[in-house]
Amino acid sequence: MAIIATRIDGRLIHGQVANLWTTKLNISRIMVVDDEVVNNDIEKSGLKLATPPGVKLSILSVDKAATNILAGKYDSQRLLIVARKPDRFLGLLERGVPLPELNVGNMSQNANTKSVTRSINVEPKDIADFDALAAKGVNLYAQMVPGDTAKPFMPLLDKVR
C-alpha cells in the first residue's frame, strides 16, 4: 500500500506539511482530499505553489481519491493524504480504503468549536466523525510536527464532550 501517512490539517499544505512531514517521511506525493477544494481554482493554485519541489500533488474528491487508491494508481509512490476534517477520512474508509491510523494535526477555531488542544478545535459533527473512525479501528493520535511525541487523541477528545 502506498499510503505512508494520513493527516488532518485545516491549512492543508503549509510549512509543517510541505517541509517537515514530507521530508521526515520521504513523501513523493501529497494527496489533498476535499470535495470543495477540487472546485476552487484559487485554492488549488495556492496548494500547487506550497507543494515542495519534486513532490507530486493530487487534489481529489473523496470518491475519486478512493477509486484511484483502490485501483493501485499510487502503489509505487509514498503517499501522504491530507484533509481538513475527519469526515473526508471516514468517507475513504467507508469506500474501502484501509486507514490504520490518522494524525490529527491542526483544526481551526470558529464560533461552533470546542478546543481540544491549542491547535485542535472540534465541532459536534467532528466529534461524531472521530467516534466513527475510532469505532472502525482507526488509531487516532495528535502530533503537530515529527519531533513531537504522538499522543492518543480519543482521551483528549473525551475532555471536551
Automatic annotation (TrEMBL):
Pfam families: PTSIIB_sorb (PF03830)
Keyword Disulfide bond in annotation: no
Signal peptide residues on this chain, from the entry's feature table: none
Recorded superkingdom: Bacteria
Residue ranges of every copy of the PTS EIIB type-4 domain listed in the record: 1-161
Record keywords, A-Z: Cytoplasm, Kinase, Phosphotransferase system, Sugar transport, Transferase, Transport
Compartment(s) where it occurs, according to its Swiss-Prot or TrEMBL record: Cytoplasm
Protein name from the UniProt record: PTS system mannose-specific IIB component
Source organism of the structure: Streptococcus moroccensis
